[in-house]
């Protein structure tokens, strides 16, 4: 399924996406600037989280509380190999029934099981994005 949307529609796209995914582990693929973090912020808002500050590029993970329990937002852009994710305890996070929103999942692909939902984002133009739900 592919959706093309204006950035002004991102909140409704996030809500629709949550009703369509089959896993609480969402993998966000796309080049730098494709809108991964922006979509994750909208998803977090749809889950009832109010305090999204920024992407966890330096901390690797941010944890937020929602009415649905904890929500974990990972950004693995900066890691060099999967051992860094193991060192920060990724296996413990992956074994929870919480929402896990993962940017740059290709950096930890060997650690992920098949119970995930892959999402590919791409830029159509300055105000429009394409989202492919794989």
From TrEMBL:
InterPro entries: P-loop_NTPase, T6A_TsaE
Gene3D superfamilies cross-referenced by the UniProt entry: P-loop containing nucleotide triphosphate hydrolases
Keyword terms of this UniProt record: ATP-binding, Cytoplasm, Magnesium, Metal-binding, Nucleotide-binding, tRNA processing
Keyword Transmembrane helix: no
Location(s) in or outside the cell: Cytoplasm
PANTHER family (UniProt xref): TRNA THREONYLCARBAMOYLADENOSINE BIOSYNTHESIS PROTEIN TSAE
Stated family: Belongs to the TsaE family.
Protein name, entry field: tRNA threonylcarbamoyladenosine biosynthesis protein TsaE
Organism expressing this protein natively: Gillisia lutea
């Amino acid at each position: 399924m592919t959706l093309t949307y204006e950035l002004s529609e991102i909140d409704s796209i996030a809500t629709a996406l949550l009703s369509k995914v089959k896993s609480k582990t969402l993998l966000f693929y796309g080049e730098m600037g494709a809108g991964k973090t922006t979509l994750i912020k909208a998803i977090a808002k749809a889950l009832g989280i109010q305090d999204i500050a920024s992407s966890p590029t330096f901390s690797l993970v941010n944890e937020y509380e929602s009415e649905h329990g904890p929500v974990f937002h990972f950004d693995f852009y900066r890691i060099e190999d999967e051992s860094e994710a193991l060192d920060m305890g990724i296996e413990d996070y992956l074994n929870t029934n919480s929402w896990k929103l993962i940017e740059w999942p290709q950096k930890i692909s060997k650690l992920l099981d098949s119970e995930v939902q892959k999402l590919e984002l791409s830029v159509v133009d300055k105000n429009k994005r394409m989202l492919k739900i794989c």
